[in-house]
Design goal:
Blueprint (H helix, E strand, L loop, with lengths): L22 E4 L5 H11 L3 H8 L1 E2 L4 E4 L1 H13 L20 E3 L7 H11 L4 E7 L2 E3 L9 E2 L13 E6 L1 H13 L8 H7 L12 H6 L26 E7 L6 E4 L8 H8 L10 E3 L2 E8 L1 H4 L12 E3 L9 H19 L12 H11 L20 H6 L4 H21 L1
Parallel strand pairs: 4-13
Antiparallel strand pairs: 1-3, 2-3, 5-12, 6-10, 6-11, 7-8, 8-9, 9-10
The structure holds flavin-adenine dinucleotide.
Length: 417
């Protein structure tokens, strides 16, 4: 619809306008973001071709000149004779034919309303409130303890890992949160969200805002220690941060209630002050921002089709993924599947062993009750079995290289079939 109608963040009329960072993340071999890009390159992604044309020096990251990138993509789309570009706001999901909805995190109001009607109540979200995730292997088990509040858990097991704070540790931690540098807010609405000034956002306030309300507020909120006996002292700690195991993300834990908008390096510094997380590796950082997305696991198949209306596909950020390259990847997949459907074939899910297949598996199979968009990380990919893990025990790089090798082989087999 741009430039006829703009969003709160975009400035031009070009396709693929990158509104914030100009980085498409790491391109170091055998990292998860590299694997995703590598799969896109293998499938002939036009976005990746545009990125090569627009590449600027960026160390290990694939960094692009944003104007050149968007221009290259726009030229590629406009010069394709089989594409007709219509620059107008679409206010309803078309009632007939095959449709790919890819209107992004800032989908216009009228269309969002119509998507809400299609997806039913609770199926469409307008804000992201994401807590950091840490790699389970990097948690110090000598310091944390497993327990559920008052020993109550759904299945009798200890559901949470608890990081116990002394008074001194707690006060230093709160001080660090209050003085940490914030990530820039790119649209006005994000400033309001941060202050909890958006209706119904009170239940998932950023930790910075909770900390600002008083030294003890976190201790009576997400850091409350009640009912959590530390087996080493037999008492409740002064304060606690709870870590909850992720369901579809193997070997990783979520910091419960720690949505925030600190800069990523600041999150690493501040959250490594948490007892037990001194050497934690973060698979995802916290975020809090305006974002339109649907509840993938409730609504979508692993081929990004609406379960209730398979002619409608969702792609990009609105399908419940997070990030530029993840949006490119779901776009490419939805496009291919829509073409298969148009040719009278049943869309085939991507192999689970690939990064693309793992992303769509997560979208379709994560827990719908607490669904949060994902960006690509190794914990979304299938894990090696115990024997293989032992083989690579002390060599994470070799383990990741093996996961990447399997992904590439699976993609090749998928393309041959
Ligand atoms: C402010 C902000 C900053 C972000 N920063 C980053 C970042 O630094 N790094 C990162 O990896 N990710 C970032 N993201 C997240 C996300 O990866 C990007 O927004 C990404 O561009 C999403 O791609 P997309 O194709 O799904 O949507 P978009 O790139 O937004 O494309 C959707 C298009 O649909 C159009 N549209 C919307 N509604 C309608 C309608 N009703 N009719 C017709 N057209 C419509 C929009 O104008 C837009 O051109 C950011 C998101 C936001 C909102």
């Amino acid at each position: 619809m741009r430039p006829v109608k703009q969003t709160a963040a975009h400035k031009t009329g070009d396709f693929g306008e990158l509104v914030c960072s100009n980085s498409l993340k790491s391109d170091s071999e055998n990292t998860a973001p590299w694997l995703l890009k590598q799969e896109l390159r293998k499938l002939g992604s036009v976005s990746m071709q545009a990125a090569v044309q627009a590449r600027v020096p960026g160390g290990h990251a694939l960094t692009v000149d944003r104007d050149q990138f968007a221009r290259a993509l726009t030229v590629a789309i406009e010069s394709e004779p089989r594409i007709t570009v219509v620059r107008e706001e679409v206010c309803t999901v078309p009632e007939e034919g095959i449709v790919v909805v890819a209107t992004g995190p800032l989908t216009s109001g009228a269309l969002a309303e119509d998507i809400g009607r299609l997806t039913g109540s609770g199926g469409l979200y307008f804000y992201d409130s994401i807590s950091p995730i840490v790699d389970a292997e990097t948690i110090d088990r000598e310091k944390v303890f497993a327990a559920s509040r008052y020993g109550k858990s759904l299945d009798g097991s200890d559901d949470y890992l608890n990081c116990p704070f002394t008074k001194e540790e707690y006060e230093a931690f709160v001080e660090a949160i209050l003085t940490a540098e914030s990530a820039e807010a790119h649209i006005e609405e994000d400033r309001a969200i941060r202050k909890g000034k958006v209706p119904f956002f009170e239940s998932c306030l950023p930790v910075e805002e909770i900390a600002r309300r008083g030294m003890n507020t976190l201790r009576f909120g997400p850091m409350k220690p009640v009912g959590l006996d530390d087996p080493r002292t037999g008492r409740w700690p002064y304060a606690v941060i709870q870590l909850r195991q992720e369901d579809q993300r193997a070997g990783s834990y979520n910091l419960v209630g720690f949505q925030n908008y600190m800069k990523f390096p600041e999150q690493k510094r501040v959250f490594r002050m948490i007892p037990g997380l001194e050497r934690a590796e973060f698979l995802r950082y916290g975020q809090i921002h305006r974002n339109t997305y649907i509840n993938g696991p409730e609504l979508l198949t692993a081929t990004l089709q609406l379960k209730s209306e398979p002619r409608v596909f969702f792609a990009g950020q609105i399908s419940g993924v997070e990030g530029y390259v993840e949006s490119m990847a779901t776009g490419l997949m939805a496009g291919r599947w829509a073409a298969e459907l148009a040719q009278g074939r049943e869309p085939r899910p991507m192999p689970r062993a690939t990064a693309m297949g793992s992303l769509t598996h997560y979208v379709a199979h994560a827990d719908p009750k607490k669904y949060q968009p994902a960006n690509i990380a190794f914990d979304l990919l299938p894990q090696l079995d115990e024997a293989e893990k032992k083989k690579f025990k002390h060599d994470k790089r070799a383990r990741h290289a093996e996961v990447c090798r399997r992904a590439e082989a699976a993609l090749e087999a998928y393309e041959r079939a």
